TrEMBL record:
It comes from Streptomyces bingchenggensis (strain BCW-1). InterPro entries: C-N_Hydrolase, C-N_Hydrolase_sf, UPF0012_CS. This is Hydrolase. GO terms for molecular function: hydrolase activity. The keyword Hydrolase applies. It comes from the Bacteria. Keywords: Hydrolase. Belongs to the carbon-nitrogen hydrolase superfamily. NIT1/NIT2 family. Residues 1-241 form the CN hydrolase domain. Gene3D superfamilies: Carbon-nitrogen hydrolase. The lineage of its organism: Bacteria, Bacillati, Actinomycetota, Actinomycetes, Kitasatosporales.
Length: 268
């Protein structure tokens, strides 16, 4: 399986329309790949909160990002994880929503981010929380969806594995000041779930926040197959999907999970 992570630079100086056109062109240039992944909230910027209301769009054929990414996936004949967009639903609520398209450009999966960053500000204040664990069946393996801050919550990733996930796609807009934590958590999720992880982070600076870059392709042993620098680039790697079944057979740790562990003092 050949994968490419498009580590876009997201800047306040570039309009959403211009960045959307540029991203679509980069995806179209990945013909021959199997999977392409974009970062989190690359149209509006993950830290440009004031732009979210005006940049929000429906997840339908009326949405400009959906139209552009569907056409780009179809043109390149790739599975496209188009990162996330600010979704506005029919009731006006905002969500941080990931979109996955198949090789024909059909929308095959949408994941509303469950864990919202910001505590009492930013995403946590502006956006509603998703509730559903989402996987997408592909001919390459079951694709599980998570986004950025979700990395800090291993329960979600175990739920994704329980749902059959073999490949984890994680778009992000991780801050540069916590780059090492990003790297540790991405590798930990790969080892913990014995899955391939495709972690695509934004580059550049917007909303006053420098992005980490450092996108990663990690195999189920936790080995980094490819790693990006801090600037915009396209990171491409060859991934052996047979490794997922091999490690799960050779080191079957997932079957040794003990789910009913009582908290200290429980039952006294």
């Amino acid at each position: 399986m050949r994968v490419s992570l498009v580590q876009l630079s997201v800047s306040d100086a570039e309009s959403a329309d211009d960045r959307r056109a540029r991203a679509a062109a980069l995806v179209r240039g990945r013909a021959g790949d199997d999977v392409v992944v974009l970062p989190e909230l690359w149209t509006t910027g993950a830290w440009a909160y004031d732009d979210w209301q005006t940049g929000a769009e429906p997840i339908s054929t009326d949405g400009p990002t959906l139209r552009a990414m569907s056409a780009a996936a179809r043109s390149a004949a790739v599975w496209l994880h188009a990162g996330t967009v600010v979704e506005r639903d029919g009731d006006g609520a905002l969500y941080n929503t990931a979109l996955v398209f198949d090789r024909t450009g059909a929308l095959r999966g949408a994941y509303r981010k469950i864990h919202r960053y910001g505590f009492d500000t930013g995403e946590a204040a502006w956006m509603a929380a998703g509730r559903d664990v989402v996987t997408v069946p592909t001919e390459l393996g079951e694709l599980g969806l998570a986004t950025c801050y979700d990395l800090r919550f291993p329960e979600l990733f175990r739920a994704l594995v329980d749902a059959g996930t073999e490949i984890l796609a994680v778009p992000a807009a991780w801050p540069a000041g916590r780059r090492e934590q990003w790297r540790i958590l991405v590798r930990a999720r790969a080892v913990e779930e014995q899955a391939v992880v495709l972690a695509c982070c934004a580059a550049g600076t917007h909303g006053g926040m420098e992005q980490a870059g450092g996108s990663l392709v990690v195999d189920p042993w936790g080995t980094v197959l490819a790693e990006a620098g801090a600037d915009e680039e396209i990171l491409t790697a060859e991934v052996e999907m047979d490794a997922v079944a091999a490690i799960r057979a050779e080191l079957p740790v997932l079957r040794d999970r003990v789910l009913a562990i009582a908290a200290p003092g429980a039952g006294r």
